[in-house]
Each structure stands twice: as structure tokens, then as C-alpha cells.
Amino acid sequence: MTFFNNKMQRNFVWLPIVGMLVFVVFYVIAIMQYSGGSYVYPNQAGFNFKTNYLCDLLNVQTINGLQNTARTYARLALATLCFSLILLWIYLPKLFTVKSKAQKIMRTAGILAMTITLFLASDVHDIVLRIAGVFGTIALIIAIVELYIDRYTLLFVLGIICLILFLTNYYIYETELLLDTLPLIQKITFIFCIFWFMLLNRALYKKLHRRL
Question: Looking only at Cα atoms, what is the longest distance across the chain?
């Protein structure tokens, strides 16, 4: 029975990576479908990586006032990403050799962050972003500390970079200092964090594989 459960976990744990790849595909489709407009240039054509936020793709209407045909793909992308990362946070404590109460807090905070993020397309976008950001920060900090304790050096360093990028986004968003750089920084953060999560997922798979 233990062998069967471990084998199931090892196979199941690949799903977050699949989900993250599906997220990228859906968001690329959404970007191609977006008719145009940003807060800086309301009449621009199409999606601009330097001026559009990823959240622009979730709105009912584009900023130039047209119906947003990208919305369905963007919402599917968001849902896929959130459920994928929820699954990753559920399994992530299995990566660490020594178990601790902090890992349970990490798991809970990570699950709450991604569950709340599901409501990012609602009318309370800013509130959702702030609450999810608090839980996400807690989960990230604990994960980084646990990676350091377990001597996952590369994942620890990359996690620090992810945290810095994440907090930089939050700082600019709240202070509006260098706000014109935020759309581009947001995308760099997304790419880097997804890459880090994939590496975490890979390390988790290898750890479960060694247990068989």
C-alpha cells in the first residue's frame, strides 16, 4: 500500500508543471486576442508588454472601450495557475527532510493565497491583491527558510530573488513610485516565479522518486 501511495504521489506531483505550462499557453492566446488599450495609451492597438498589466486581460471591456474577447482565455489561465499552485503548496512539505509546524503554516498560507487570487477578476481586485499578497509573502518566506535549512542552495537563492521581485511589485503598486515600470516588472516577476515553482516541482518529484 505504501509503495502504491508513493507511486501515485510521484505521478500526481507533475500536475502543477503541466498546469503552469497550460497557464502560459492560455495567456499567450489571451494576449493575441486583446484588442488594445492601456492606462498610459488608451488608444493603442493590441497588448503592450511595457504598458499593459496582465490583469487588463481579465476585464469585461478593454481599456479602449471594446468588448474584451481575451477575457475567457485569461480567466482560464488564472484558474489553471491557481489550482496548479494550490496543489504544489499541498505537496511542498514533502520536499523537506525535517518536518516542522512552520511547513504547515507555509502550506496553509500558500493555499489561501492562491484561493484568494482566484477572485482577482472581481470588482474587489485591489483588496484581493493585498490579502493574497500577505499570505503569499508568508508562504514564500517560510519556503525560502526551509530550503536553506535543507540545503537546497540553488532553490534558496532563486527563492530570495523571487521574494525580492514580489515585494518590489508590491512596493511600486502601493507607493506608485516608478509606476510606469510596473507592467514590465510584473511580467519579469511572473516568468521568474513560474520558473522557480517549476524547479521546486522538479525537486519534489525527484525526492518522491527516491522514496520508492
Answer: 61
- State the pLDDT at residue 13: 85
* Cα 169 versus chain centre, distance: 13
Q: Are 56 and 34 in contact (CB under 8 A)?
A: yes
Domain count, the chain: 1
Length of the chain: 212
pLDDT at position 209 is 78
Nearest-5° Cα angle at 18, 75 to 86: 65
Q: Between helices 101-117 and 71-91, what is the axis angle to 10°?
A: 170
The rounded distance, in Å, linking the Cα atoms of 41 and 37 is 6
Q: What average pLDDT does range 174-193 have in this prediction?
A: 95
Global pTM value? 0.91
How would DSSP label each residue in 62-102? -TTSSB-TTHHHHHHHHHHHHHHHHHHHHHGGGG-SS--HH
Enclosing domain of residue 155: 2-210
pLDDT digits (tens, 9 = 90+) for 96-130: 999 999 999 999 999 999 999 999 988 898 999 99
Q: With contact defined as beta carbons under 8 Å apart, do 120 and 133 qualify?
A: no
